Amino acid sequence: MNKSKGMRTETLFKIFIVVALIGLAISILIPVAWVFLASIKENKEFYSNPWALPEGFYFQNFIEAFQEAQMGSYLLNSVIVTALALVFLLVVALPAAYVLSRFKFTGSRFLNSFVKAGLFINVSYIAVPIFLMLLGWDSGIRTLLDEGLFLNNRVVLALIYASTALPFTIFLLSSYFETLPSDFEEAAGIDGAGYFRTMFSVMLPMAAPSITIVILFNFLLFWNEYILALTLMPGDHKTLPVGLLNLLAAERAAVNYGPMYAGMVIVMLPTLILYIIVQKRLTQGMTVGGVKG
Predict the structure, then answer these.
(1) How far is CA 293 from CA 80, 97, 175, 227, 290, in A?
(2) Closest to 55 measured CA to CA, from 47, 63, 64
(3) Could you give the CA distance from residue 65 to residue 67 in angstroms, rounded to a whole number?
(4) CATH H-level, domain 62-288: superfamily
(5) Residues 242-268: b if buried by 16+ CB within 10 A, e if exposed
(6) Is the pLDDT of residue 106 over 70?
């Protein structure tokens, strides 16, 4: 009797999980699909029945978004900033995570605690201090040069993105490095490989699933970041989220909804493409690191 009751409870629980997951998927897919369909509608279609399927493919919305709203320039800025930030982040985080997870030395516990403390710092709280710091540096440079160097600079913004993402990235990579067996390092040492050769030729390839997760998560973080981009890029080098907000404000005031949704698609499309490309590796990375070898 108890066994039958337990099986019934387990079945009901599985049904509840399936229904909840289906409901969550629908709540995500419907708005995304609606944005894609709305991006190819003519403006008059929004007044008749905004929920109806588009009558045709009106690609003029994307042309207006790229030409009139300068979404192409914003897209290029986002690509440059995101790519530079990922390169800066990986160059610093990979060696740091490897050393902190595989070696014990004086001060290593303090450094680990210091990195973990950085996980509790919200970027929104330090945006204004960063802006004032860079503004002060620019004021000093203007006494020597005609213009500033630190504000409205894509390289500086990429460095700040990488710096703010270091605690989470080092923590995640360190946790994965700790699960890797030391036999491969010992074998590499016997073959005469040094620390750098062991890290680059042995450990980093083994940590490829975790590195894939880091790249994907930080790409989404950098690509969609708004507060720092708005604060530190007051000139022409605006990134896509800031440009999208300007587009939304302009098209909403002009009651022109097609280019507005086309701009949303331009922002979403790179992230969807990247997720499709790395989906298999992402699943591996989320499961492999859970078992200690």
Answers:
(1) 38, 18, 13, 41, 10
(2) 47
(3) 6
(4) MetI-like (1.10.3720.10)
(5) bbbeebbeebeeeeebbbbbbbbbbbb
(6) yes
Residue 130 has a pLDDT of 92
Distance (Å, rounded) from C-alpha 59 to C-alpha 42?
9
Radius of gyration from C-alpha coordinates of the chain: 24
For residue 3, is pLDDT > 80? no
- Give pTM, 2 decimals: 0.83
Asked whether the beta carbons of 96 and 170 are under 8 A apart, the reply is: yes
CA gap 156, 138 in Å, rounded: 12
Q: What is the pLDDT of residue 84?
A: 96
